[in-house]
Amino acid sequence: MGKLGISIYPSKSSMSEMKAYIDLAAQYGYQRLFTSMLEVADNAQETVATFTEIIQYGREKGLKTSLDVNPNLFKALNISYNQLEVFAEMGIDALRLDEGFTGYEEAMLTHNNFGITIELNISRGQHYIDMVNDFGPNQTQLIGSHNFYPQAYTGLSFDYFLKTAKQYKKYNLETAAFIDSPDGKIGPWPLSDRMVSAELQRDMSLTAQVSLLKMTGLIDDILLSSSLLSEKDLKEVADAFKQSLPVFPVKVQQELSAVEKEILLDNQHLYRGDKSDYMIRSSQPRVIYKDHSIEPFNTIPIKRGMVTIGNNNAGQYKGELQIALKDRPNDGRQNVVAQISPENDILIDLLRLWQSFLFIEE
Fold first, then answer.
1. What is the mean pLDDT of residues 207-224?
2. Rounded Cα distance, 274 and 171, in Å
3. Rounded to whole angstroms, how far apart are CA atoms 279 and 305?
4. Buried-state track 22-31, b at ≥16 Cβ within 10 A, e below 16
5. Is the CB of residue 349 less than 8 Å from the CB of residue 313?
6. pLDDT value at residue 40
7. Could you tell me which residues come within 8 angstroms of residue 162 by beta carbon, excluding any fewer than 6 positions away?
8. Domain ranges of the chain
9. In what order do the strands lie in the sheet with 334-339?
10. pTM over the 0.85 mark
11. Is the four-CA dihedral 190, 192, 30, 1 of positive or negative sign?
12. CATH class of 4-243
């Protein structure tokens, strides 16, 4: 099973703040800790002690640390790429190479005797992971993670995000990607418009981002990029991550009847396998609620992303829940009960036939 992670940035937070944040994350089952020395490479020697203290504290609380580095940091520490003693003494579990080498160096690093996992940058793409594998790495000490992108519109295209993650899954390697909260303020760099891996995540809720990454089937670990997030955010992510079914956050129509709200939010739905171009159908509610009255309400034209329930005029389809895949007229038999926000629209396309799913009110 995958793991959840948080991020800390010692150059931006006090030791007491970081330790309190680790304590909180540990309570909610977070197991990974991401931190970066990229932004402190100019003062690397002086900051090693600070990083060591917080990394060791995380380890005591059950969080394993990935440390983001690049060739400039090795130079600042006056070490060559294969001298990992300083990182082992810091207590890290994984060394993330934000910028890689030629493939040979990465492969050799995986054979280190310190038990340090080498974490490659999935976002680099091309044939990077193939080059590393050409040199016979120790696969038990090799994983990958996507970058995060603080500036709006610089995030990865979703097609590229998937394509590059698939390259790592071809070798059965563990993968990770970053999500962020709308309330995120603390990152490693001055600018942060939400630090996400794929651009389409930027306007999504935390729950929707977790659902997105899980529904791809390509990402194992999910890491929160901003630091010192609220307990509310940590809990929301943990709850969504533990949910084994896809979750669709929806804006619920006001003044719904009790039975419509129950159908929508209190039931597990199943995407019927006899596929329609126009809708995702969940038919079981029409069996469960066949004796309930569903008065016509909000029978407006149906747009993609709208969630509808068949009303009393729908005959044998009364009670059936549908998610619109395409715009279509409403003949008065469908009550529009909720809307999947445009920023979460991609979730509709990722749902598979015969897959069960849930709704949660935004």
1. 98
2. 34
3. 9
4. bebbbebebb
5. no
6. 65
7. 216, 218
8. 4-243, 249-361
9. 269-270, 356-361, 247-252, 334-339, 306-310, 321-324, 279-282
10. yes
11. negative
12. alpha beta
Lookup: tokens for 333:
């038999």
Q: Are 36 and 66 in contact (CB under 8 A)?
A: no
Q: Is the pLDDT of residue 46 over 80?
A: no
Alpha-carbon span 279 to 282, nearest angstrom: 10
**Cα dihedral: 168, 248, 358, 265 (round 10):** 170
Give the pairing type, strands 334-339 and 306-310: antiparallel
Question: What is the chain's length?
Answer: 362
Q: Which fold is adopted by the domain 249-361?
A: Cyclophilin (2.40.100)
- 125 and 160 Cβ atoms separated by less than 8 Å: yes
Do the beta carbons of residue 317 and residue 287 sit within 8 Å?
no
Determine the residue type at 255. Answer: E
- Residue 318's nearest CA partner among 345, 291, 340 is 291
Nearest to 144 by CA among 181, 209, 197: 197
Looking at residues 292-300, what average pLDDT do you find? Answer: 98
What pLDDT is stored for residue 73 in this prediction?
84
Given a contact cutoff of 8 angstroms between Cβ atoms, the answer to whether 29 and 1 are in contact is no
Region 178-193 average pLDDT = 91
User: Which position has the higher pLDDT, 23 or 191?
Assistant: 23
